[in-house]
Amino acid sequence: xxxxxxxxxxxxxxDAQASAGKQRSTLGTPTLxxxxxxxxxxxxxxxxxxxxxxxxxLAQVRDGKLPVDAAVDRLRHMPFEDLGFAKVDHHRALRHGxxxxxxxxxxxxxxxxxxxxxxxxxxxxxxITRADAKTAAFVKRKIRKxxxxxxxxAIRVWGDxxxxxxxxIAVVCAGTSDIPVAEEARVTAEVMGNxxxxxxxxxxxxxxRLMSSRERLVxxxxxxxxxGMEGALPSxxxxxxxxxxIAVPTSVGYGASFNGLAALLAMLNSCSSxxxxxxxxxxxxxxxxxxxxNRL
Length: 296
Hints:
The chain is an alpha/beta fold.
């Protein structure tokens, strides 16, 4: 939604005064108080959901024809803003607890910036994934608060740092080569309002390194584990902790690793029953789901 700014009250008052005695009434559309109508004109005028639709929805609630919960459910699916090249979903945060995330790969820098700028009208946090250095530089010139993480390609605007998770999320990687995927998971979980403990390079080839981090692992409410090669680490971690473990196969490895397929299959066949698996190199998906679990 658009930020109303310091002139919001004046704008509402002016609109309400101008509308006094001229309440809008169309066939089949109940009329709202002019001040209420002005508020929704202000909030929704840029979006595909029309002010008339909002008036109708509120009128149904007011008249007892629509339960409040049903109205909230309808609001979860609107509005969006049509930019021509993208339809920006401004209510994603209402439905998922996180504004729409921008996948930068395949988009021009101008498109990425355009979507981000419109999301920031109504959100303090925005996440962009898989951005190259050119796109990051373009975005940072226009959005000064943007942070770029070159290893993972993530760009983050983190204006609201409120912690919403009920516990800590541990993000673990087997080797240094897995850090880019782990970083994507960490940045995602942080921007979604979680405290994250990042633990790097504790793969099974040096099992004593893992055991030295055991206390940190058991304190976590959710653990994300990124590993390539044979993908054994999530199973070992799963055997040490009682919380959910989200396994992320990475494309790190030699020929027979098949760009992460070997790790993926190993994780899917894990005998540790507290493990679930996301797609190859999908640090974002792991961090997102870990955040949702941490709010339960």
